[in-house]
Amino acid sequence: MAGGSERSMKALKEVWRRAENSLCADCGKPDPDWASSTLGVFICLSCSGIHRNIPSISKVKSLKMDHWDDAQVQFLAKHGNAVTKATYEAHIPIYYYQPTYNDCQVLREQWIRAKYERKEFTEPGKQLPYSDGVKEGILWKRGRDNGQFLPRKFLLSEREGCLKYFTKQDAKEPKINVKIDVINATFQPVKIGNPNGLQITYLKDNKTRNIFVYHESGKEVVDWFNAIRSVQFHYLKVAFPIASDNEIRNRLTRNFLKEGYMEKTGPKQREAFKKRWFTLDHRRLMYFKDPLDAFAKGEVFVGSRENGYSVQKGLPSGTQGNFSWLYGLTIVTPDREYLFTCETETDQLDWIAAFTSVINQAMTPQEYAIEAYFKFKS
């Protein structure tokens, strides 16, 4: 902390040490070392970069390297994260996704802009672009066969409880019509190759189907994301009238537990191991030839430990079949063992941790039904 009087530096440290200021006000990252001298919040380096892009609203300075005068320190002391949140986060809809430091740039940027620039949460009952139960517009969708992104009309309807898309703007019949309760949406900028890339998945005949979309506007694609969550929330409120708002919120869109490449062999465990892209979506382990495939080549149900499921480090002794990656793991189910290899030990341990987190959870009645379907299918 360079410059400034000793008194100012001491006062700044005291405000900085308050428990309310120990996490970034915007993403929750521990130990923020930047602050906004105009908003009075303590933020991390990453969020400070977003604040710097809205200079009419927020002026950011380093708590370690920049000079803070007495007036600025007093402003921070008067405000801080708790007071500022009480104003700018006073009326966040229960379904609105509040990103963390693990989330992508577009989610964090639009969250910050929604709070401070557009002031979307300062008043109760404010009409928001994702809250009125219907949303219609153009998203660029990746073609299943040719891989090209083309503009497609999407329509989300709370009244009908579904999401539709049309191949032509004037088309009367949709290409798909998906019930809102089988939809998931998660941002995938790296996989899709666009900073605003969104992956929408849904179940068709109990099989997972992927749609990859983006929009040039970060605000528009995040509005679509929260509109889906809004429609889902109101649908589930009707379907589960005794459930609390927090219970329903936990059933809205979710991030995948883990994704990445592994090698796998077939059920006879003598075939050559093949490299595949894997996605663990809670109890569904799906594998694809390519990360952007519309349909999975196969799915594995991952149940609970009390029902005979486990994950083991390494492959069974005497495993046949050629594999190029040396770090193996085995998923044990009541019916068979699934063998995989990972490229690095870190990947192996990360996958084992992800599987363990699922297996250690008790199964819900709905998950027992899904397990029964997988057993019937096999």
From TrEMBL:
<dbReference type="InterPro" id="IPR001164">
    <property type="entry name" value="ArfGAP_dom"/>
</dbReference>
<feature type="domain" description="PH">
    <location>
        <begin position="132"/>
        <end position="233"/>
    </location>
</feature>
<dbReference type="GO" id="GO:1902936">
    <property type="term" value="F:phosphatidylinositol bisphosphate binding"/>
</dbReference>
<keyword id="KW-0677">Repeat</keyword>
<keyword id="KW-0963">Cytoplasm</keyword>
<dbReference type="GO" id="GO:0005096">
    <property type="term" value="F:GTPase activator activity"/>
</dbReference>
<dbReference type="InterPro" id="IPR038508">
    <property type="entry name" value="ArfGAP_dom_sf"/>
</dbReference>
<dbReference type="Pfam" id="PF01412">
    <property type="entry name" value="ArfGap"/>
</dbReference>
<keyword id="KW-0479">Metal-binding</keyword>
<dbReference type="GO" id="GO:0005547">
    <property type="term" value="F:phosphatidylinositol-3,4,5-trisphosphate binding"/>
</dbReference>
<dbReference type="GO" id="GO:0005886">
    <property type="term" value="C:plasma membrane"/>
</dbReference>
<dbReference type="InterPro" id="IPR001849">
    <property type="entry name" value="PH_domain"/>
</dbReference>
<keyword id="KW-0862">Zinc</keyword>
<dbReference type="InterPro" id="IPR011993">
    <property type="entry name" value="PH-like_dom_sf"/>
</dbReference>
<dbReference type="GO" id="GO:0005737">
    <property type="term" value="C:cytoplasm"/>
</dbReference>
<feature type="domain" description="PH">
    <location>
        <begin position="255"/>
        <end position="360"/>
    </location>
</feature>
<keyword id="KW-0863">Zinc-finger</keyword>
<dbReference type="GO" id="GO:0008270">
    <property type="term" value="F:zinc ion binding"/>
</dbReference>
<dbReference type="Pfam" id="PF00169">
    <property type="entry name" value="PH"/>
</dbReference>
<feature type="domain" description="Arf-GAP">
    <location>
        <begin position="6"/>
        <end position="129"/>
    </location>
</feature>
<protein>
    <submittedName>
        <fullName>Arf-GAP with dual PH domain-containing protein 1</fullName>
    </submittedName>
</protein>
<dbReference type="InterPro" id="IPR052589">
    <property type="entry name" value="Arf-GAP_dual-PH_domain"/>
</dbReference>
<dbReference type="InterPro" id="IPR037851">
    <property type="entry name" value="PH2_ADAP"/>
</dbReference>
<keyword id="KW-0343">GTPase activation</keyword>
<dbReference type="InterPro" id="IPR037849">
    <property type="entry name" value="PH1_ADAP"/>
</dbReference>
<dbReference type="InterPro" id="IPR037278">
    <property type="entry name" value="ARFGAP/RecO"/>
</dbReference>
